[in-house]
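We recall that each integer encodes one residue's backbone shape. We quote one record:
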Amino acid sequence: MNLQDVLAALANFFKGLFSPNVPAGESPEPVHRKVSLIIFNPSIPSEGGHKLADVMHWNNVDELVAGYTSDLQSTSAGYANFEIVERNEVDRFPMKEDKFVYNPDDFVNCLRTGTGFHQPDTADYHAVLKDFDIINKINSGAIDEVWMFGFSYSGFYESRMVGPEAFWCNAPPIIDSPNCSRRFMMMGFSHERGVGEMEESFGHRAEYILQQVFRNSPPSDNLWQRFIRCDKTNPGMAEVGSVHFAPNSQVDYDWGNKTDFPSRCNNWYRFPDLSGAPVMVNCSEWGNGDIRGHHTWWLRHFPHITGSMNGVSYNWWEYVIDPNKVS
């Protein structure tokens, strides 16, 4: 055992002294999370003032949100219930970190030609926080997180954590927001994409949060690293895999692989009993290559019962929904 493993084992030991194990129990009480929905959808003068999403024939945001929230409720066995408590559709582009803002007609031309996009691309998150009074709403409990809808070159990350002791969550954390009392997530979605891509963003959020939850666990106790095993990284020892890699995937996004491989993915439906033998699986288990099919299948395997071991909850959704639960 190397020094890192020794230190991790000691950390787990002392954590366990103050967080005794709790036997596995029943389904946890559902939680309800309040969402501020911000839709950037500028009007385009050269197109008769029609909104950008209509000009480009993009998806209906409200339909995307309905599908996404329904899937999260279903895959979490009723635990995760998101509610849009405010909906702001704004007639402008997000500002960039260098204060650049696109001219609407110029931006449409960029989209149609595939050239001329501004760099650096990252949006000014602090401007969003200020313009929509996000920190005060978070502190008061009026909202719990923010969902932003943009488009290519909006400059949004898929997910970004804000608040005290925020950590990397598929994007650099924002820890310099004055007077913010708790951590929260800002999700970046797109008019152009589907529910499956929204769940991809959520899946990466889950990956980074659960990696943080288990960061001090020695290899023998790190259930997250066990959960994400696929045949590519752990030949013959595949379990559920990751967002990009199904149990039998050989490359990123290989969700349509028809080759049968042994996997212990079904054991996670019986968590915390993970002792079952592997079964042969292929892409027919998770949607035959469909992005939404794979991601809902993947999320359904997350443990979601009461109880804990070494101070880590048996309900992984608890952490993914509320990053303040991560110590």
Summary: The chain is about 30% helix and 20% strand. The chain has a mean pLDDT of 94. The chain has two domains: 3-25+217-325, 31-212.
